[in-house]
Design brief:
Elements (H helix, E strand, L loop, with lengths): L1 H14 L10 E5 L5 E8 L20 E4 L7 E8 L4 E8 L3 E6 L6 E3 L16 E5 L5 E8 L20 E4 L8 E8 L4 E8 L5 E4 L1
Keywords: Signal
Protein name: Tat pathway signal protein
């Protein structure tokens, strides 16, 4: 009888599903024209911000970092501090219902939707977008700038590369037009350009 009860208890324990971990991971995107020197993410129920998630690094304009909160809470508070000391906050963000949170793009800077291809809610006239590599080749360098500017600016990938099927958030300043120029350099050194691409009306651009 005792062995039967033990077997029944074991079966019930095995049949009971373990609590699912909260899906509160997200991309923190810098959509401003300044580098973010520190960022803090904590559950909204707490008053303590906790440690700087960037550590000794900074988040340059147009770049993003993947955030995995220490607590499983869905509702989070997020604070960033730009170089120069200016701060910006998002309170009571439901991180379980979005894929990215962008700072520096105005009130409509939260990127919603599950997964990397979530839809984006941006302010009017904001040309920022997600650049996706839809080719079969790895991109070594990526340049994107408003068509009104003469130079290409910095390499958006920095020390990284962009593999086929991957994307990169491109933060651009609002109010300078919706047409952008793009240039990619593949691993073999070949380059391709596209000029005057309108991006204010699209959240994603697939490079093919």
């Amino acid at each position: 009888m005792r062995s039967l009860m033990a077997a029944l208890a074991f079966w019930l324990a095995a049949a009971t599903p373990a609590p699912a971990a909260a899906q509160n991971r997200f991309w923190l995107a810098n959509q401003s024209g300044q580098a973010i020197e520190s960022a803090y993410v904590s559950p909204s129920r707490l008053s303590n911000w906790g440690p700087d998630i960037l550590g000794s690094s900074v988040l340059p304009p147009g770049e993003q970092v993947h955030v995995t909160p220490q607590a499983p809470d869905c509702v989070l508070d997020i604070r960033v501090r730009y170089q120069g000391g200016r701060e910006e906050e998002r309170r009571n963000v439901n991180a379980c219902g979005l894929s990215r949170v962008a700072f520096g793009g105005g009130a409509g800077a939260t990127v919603r939707g599950g997964g990397a291809g979530g839809s984006i809610s941006r302010g009017a006239g904001d040309p920022s977008f997600s650049f996706a590599n839809r080719t079969e080749w790895t991109i070594r360098e990526l340049y994107v700038s408003p068509s009104t500017e003469r130079g290409w600016g910095r390499d958006r990938l920095g020390d990284d590369t962009l593999d086929p099927g991957h994307d990169r958030w491109i933060g651009l300043p609002s109010g300078r037009g919706c047409a952008v120029d793009m240039k990619v350099v593949y691993m073999n050194g070949q380059s391709r350009e596209r000029r005057g691409v309108e991006t204010c009306s699209r959240a994603d651009y697939g490079w093919r």
